[in-house]
Protein: guanylate cyclase
Organism: Tetraodon nigroviridis
Amino acid sequence: MYGLYLEAVNDYINESYGEDVWRLIENRAEIPHLKFVRHQMYNDNLILRLAKAAGEVLGKTHDELMYAFGVYMVKRIGNYGYERILKVLGRNVRDFINELDNLHEYFRFSFPKVQPPSFCVEEECETSLTLHYRSTRKGFTQFVKGQLSQVGRQFYNTDIEVEILSKEETEKMTYVVRRCCAPTCPAAGGHLTPAPPCHGFRLAQVYKMNFDNAAFKHRMPQQKTAPSYEKLPMKRGIFFDMFPFSVIFRRDMTMYRIGDGLKEVFSDLQGKKVNEEFTLVRPMLEFSWDNIYTHLNNVFELLSKAVVESKQKDMREPPKKPLHLKGQMKYVPQWDSLIFLGTPIIETVEDMIKMGVYVNDLNLHDSSRELILAGTQQSAELQLALDQEQQKYAQLQEIIKKLDEEKKRGDSLLYAMIPKAVADRLRKGITALETCQVFPDVTILFSDVVKFNEICIHITPMQVVDMLNEIYIVFDTLSEKHNVYKVVETIRDAYMVVAGVPNKTTFHAHHICDMALDMLSSIDHLKDPSTGDNIQIRVGIHSGMVVAGVVGLKMPRYCLFGDTVNTASRMESNGVGMQIHISQTTKDHLEHEPYIIEERGKIFVKGKGYMKTYWL
């Protein structure tokens, strides 16, 4: 699959749900590509993995997403430069669908490695059309359905109701039949023609499409003998000179006339069966008279089963290559025969050498000669340009990967200073002042090291840093465990966390008290560098109202303001080593909870007077 389809899925998710959602889907699908290149080949399963991941993230089904992808692909086709091709594919919906099987042929030079599905119209009336869809890929049924519906709306102002009538999947084949018919159509109540077997494909499906098919005209029965004034006698040699790669065969598939060019390549074809000497590549049908006769409006591709021996004597090892023909099938009633008017599919001069075909073997009345010769002259330049673009793409991918890594590092640093929810609001253009909020009920914890100043006198500055680093690593781990926010602004040995900011919760006091209990039990292995004794800490907790927001420009910080902050600090400074000192408001939040609380009594608190406090 080419990157064109994956690019459309990327654009759809970004436009509909935002870049952050796309990143989440991309990571969940484990997609290694940071940017899809339109003309680069990718694994067919990538789009299915994206649809599965998007369904998990967005809560949508696989069918809903694949249908939406198909609709968007047609909507944005103009952005990819192919809208004009779709517009001229047919005058109406009927013509478009009948020409659909040939669409990928027009993209052969832009997308040479494409593996197109097959579309065949089986039954038709003024209000109906039965479409058979065959593909080597699984999982794209709804994608095609969305494309068909959108084509009717966008290019023909016609509503097409697409219904899946039958579906067959095997390890190598998908076969789908879609019938487009209104309730008044005779075909709506009838039975479908049994689907011909498909070989080498993974999905086969039948679509029913309801739309106004007024463009349909019943075929008139053909006359056995044409009027005399329409007869244009032509010698056999002139005809086969005009169509050197043509084949005429009867109902038993026996070839009784072949073109001069084909004779030069395979001299012993005449009298053999065409389905034994050639494989039908397109349309995706069993190679039989009935199947060909009912699909005369399709382009046919035949691939010889025998390889062509090169006649170039100067080549050391003449390569072998089958002959690939593309053309049209026509029924000739006077002969009761089918005639295949074909021309070789040759992309380069090297292919001609391998096949033993020469320029003068090709038709004069089409562009085969010009395309091959002109393409050969430009192929070297195009290949060089392609190699350069691929090199630039590889460099770009590496740069984007490094940029993404740096972005993650920057985000990690930012979220350490500012809560993620607040940082995301700032990125959307909210000013720092607008981030300020009043939180009526939160709980704050302060802690410090007992006799910190005395310890610092007896040890080196680096030992002080190492000691605090060990303590903070333990406390930071606990803050993540208990879902509390660590306030960045820390002075000396003081450590401050808060619950209820910026994410509000009714259990803010419980989170902080649980963390405080873990803090006491988690530092029993930390030693005082000056004495070798265990380090002791004091913990103070208070609950109340605060104002929180981002302040500063050069180094913005998320800060808390209010009397609650000061009171929590006083609880810590008036505390005792290896004890948790809490205020009356915090105790009130812990009523009827399994915490052991002892009354300390009233103490004098600077700036507050006498307060009744407790030990937790």
The two ends are 65 Å apart (CA to CA).
